[in-house]
Each structure stands twice: as structure tokens, then as C-alpha cells.
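Q&A log
Question type: sequence-to-structure
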Amino acid sequence: MITITPQKIDFFSKGQDGKELRTKRGDPYIKARITTSTEKIYLNVFDENQKNLLKVGQSIELETEQNGQYTNYSFPRKKSPQDIKIDELEARIKALESMVNSLGLPQINKAEIGNKSYDAEMIEADKKFNPTVENHELEEDLLPF
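Response status: OK
Response body:
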């Protein structure tokens, strides 16, 4: 993500061949040439709302993506409800990991999951917090039913 301040903006609705610019689906769009103090940026503009965001002297945030020797620019995408939910879940997982780590349990290294030494470490940690359970197998008299 970069922030630019345009010094000059030119809009084009036709390509170099004189034909109207259209997407692969056939929808019309315009191309903006944005001149800053250091570079010229070409940006595809697909609707009036995007065009209204482009004003000389006003800072604009753009997403960048390196494609070989070229840099592609685009307006920041709106997050879908699924993206928002994923971000929320990731934040909750980080909070839970932080809480677990604050208990003094061994750190979980994703590369060690399934490793026997990791399992033994967890059993030892469990004994520390549950000293009455020596045998980690179910005993019938401990079952609630």
C-alpha cells in the first residue's frame, strides 16, 4: 500500500488504437494517468466513485503488486464479510495463544506438532497442573456416568 499526492491527472476513455476501453467482460472503463513529483502512474478506473477519489493535491492510497518488471496499481479493495470474519478469527487465535503462553506451558512450535518429544513435554506440563493424574488413561471410577 502506498500513498501518493497527484500533481496532475489525465483521464482517457479510449486506447491508443482509438477504441473505447473495455474490460474482458465488455464493461467500459477509463484509464487515469497520475503524475506525482517522482513518477507517472497508470490506474484503471471502473466507476464514478473511484474517479471522484482522484483529485489533484489530495493524498490517495493505492495497492501495489509487482508483476515482473512492472508495478500494477489499484484502489484498495473492500473486504468481503468472509475476509472480515477471517481477520476476527485470526485476532482471537492470537489472543488465545497469548493467554496460553502466559500460563507457562511449553511453547507450541508448529514444526514440532506430532513430534514425540513435544507430546512428552505436554504430558509433563499436564502432570504439573494435574498432579493427581499419573496415568493418562481413563479410569472407570473417574468417569461421571
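Response note: DSSP finds three helices and six strands in the chain.
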